[in-house]
Amino acid sequence: MRDNPFFSPPAVPSLEADDAVAPPAMVPPGVSRVPSAGVATPTQLHFARSGVITPEMAYVAAVEGCDPALVRSEVAAGRAIIPANIHHLRLQPMVIGKAFCCKINANIGNSALRSDRGVELEKLHTAVHHGSDTVMDLSTGADIHAIRQGIIDHSPVPIGTVPIYEALELVPKVEDLTIDHYLEVLERQAAQGVDYFTIHAGVLAEHVPLTTHRITGIVSRGGAIMAQWMTHHQEQNPLYTHFDEILEVCARHDASISLGDGLRPGCLADASDAAQFAELDTLGELTLRCWHREVQVMIEGPGHVPFDQIAMNVQRQQEVCREAPFYVLGPLVTDVAPGYDHITSCIGATMAGFAGAAMLCYVTPKEHLGLPDLEDVKQGVIAYRIAAHAADVALHRPGAREWDDALSRARFAFDWEEQFRLAMDPQTARAFHDASLPAEGYKSAKFCSMCGPKFCSMRITQDVRRIAGAPLISPALPSEQAHAPAQTPPVNGRA
Ligand code: SF4
Hints:
Elements: H1 44-49, H2 55-64, H3 68-76, E1 80-81, E2 96-97, E3 103-108, H4 117-129, E4 134-137, H5 144-154, E5 159-161, H6 163-168, H7 179-192, E6 196-199, H8 221-233, H9 238-241, H10 243-253, E7 256-259, H11 274-292, E8 297-301, H12 307-320, E9 326-329, H13 341-355, E10 359-361, H14 374-394, H15 400-412, H16 416-422, H17 426-436, H18 452-455, H19 457-468, H20 478-483
Parallel strand pairs: 3-4, 3-10, 4-5, 5-6, 6-7, 7-8, 8-9, 9-10
Antiparallel strand pairs: 1-2
Helix pairs in contact: 2-3, 4-5, 4-14, 7-10, 12-13, 13-14, 15-16, 16-17
Bound molecules: iron/sulfur cluster.
């Protein structure tokens, strides 16, 4: 909701509970945002269950435009999480849950073939500027620790990681990995301020044979790594057998867990199969263990799913995981458009959001083809903001439709500047208009280059209304007036 320029929420409170007029979010280094002194489990879930509305809950309630009591009760029930590691001091908290507007995540990070800290920070800036609600650092190449430190230090949004990637840096081969390596990395990243961890604890040894019929096998990097380890050692997944120790680390730092779907389908043919749903059942069991330890948890989901199976997948996750937030990757609804998978996937993401998914992980045009660059990050974020907003509109979330209606009124009134200002990507909207009609006088023209002056149907409609004596512009609805900003809102996104 904070990226909706037509939505004007109440003043956002300071995160410092005793300083109501301080600017939001940026708290002095070394100051914990939560009253954690002496609290063994300083998690938002612990405080919510204790009946405490934390500064983080009050903050996200103001951003969402809802009652802080609703945020507290949704977090307490496990239906929402506020990923907010107590060490991430630059964080502007946000909430993930189906009672709130649909969120999006952007993945960044280097690879063994391409690595540059400066480029990754630029990707972070691009993702946040265009409106990504969280960012995952999926670095697997050199300098993982230093790149992540830079990202956390600069990020106002929650940062997620996949700790198994850094754990593998400690050993020559997957088979050499031990749970001690993993816990060492987990502790280091949690102390660094990572807000949520993807943990592939639900892939069990008995699930791996269920994938042998698949066209694309195991496509999750974490899932494939754990399958290789289990097959080599003929032992159970150590992330599953040592899950209590993982929970202890997360509980101390309020690092949320994102239970990874290591057996997610990598193509339409593999969707909704026995392997995927066997792992989902294990994720349901692990969800209860997270809640028992008062660790916040969300569940990751597929991947590649035919359009007609998406709602069923969301409903099944909600039942099995007792309404814990669902965080889906896409899903792609067709496999035949490499180069355009931001589109194939945001179609599925829209359906997933409408069916109840709480956060949508973006896919960029480079999916399956290469490491995304800055332009890919922008295209992915915009595609997913469209998907999330479409879901918010369809679910009648407060303030969502009013944005559309305001832009439509500006369009019909030929108020080009207002149309650009309200556009999800103002720069692109302006550039496309000006590409054919750059002169300033065309900013008040009652047509654009698409139909031209003679065939502009909206201008003709205005003429029809004039002849009929009807009002030229239909009045704003009361709901639009209620949400109308008192002053010019920020153009878009964050600085
Ligand atoms: S010319 Fe066509 S596209 Fe352009 S404003 Fe008029 S109706 Fe819309």
